[in-house]
Amino acid sequence: MEMRDKAVVIASLERDNTTWVSEYLPDWQPYIYIADASNRSAYKYTTVMNKGRESMVYLTYIIDYYDSLPLITTFLHAHRYAHHNEGPRHDNVWVMQHLQLSHVKEMGYVNLRCDWEPGCNNPQKHVTSDLWREVFKNTSTTNGQLLSITPL
Fold this sequence. Notes:
Layout: E1 6-12, H1 19-24, E2 29-34, E3 45-46, H2 54-65, E4 72-77, H3 92-97, H4 101-107, H5 129-135, E5 145-147
Parallel strand pairs: 1-2, 1-4, 2-3, 4-5
């Protein structure tokens, strides 16, 4: 899978250090949004306002790229390590590097917060294909698939 087929959307603030994204995930297209940009023109990706925590970033990305979404999009917080990340040391890098892309494509949606002991072969699904069809009335909403990540 090529870089243009995979995007990682990061919800961050100006004070956040997101260098880990380009350093450890070079095969993912990064979209690092600064939600509280004091000078919006200084950043490539920003939101119109800092509201709704990470949801404003994620929604802004989906709206901005709706017609050209990649095959797989992941949504992450700016911090590399967090208690809500599963896997060794609660590391986003480890989680992303062990993501089974074939499984994501097969399922259409997965949550990265799962129990890694059995290997996430059957992760808990929060959005099913039936629910997706019900919400979007069985219309073609994107040419790609969305991957949701852990809540705060």
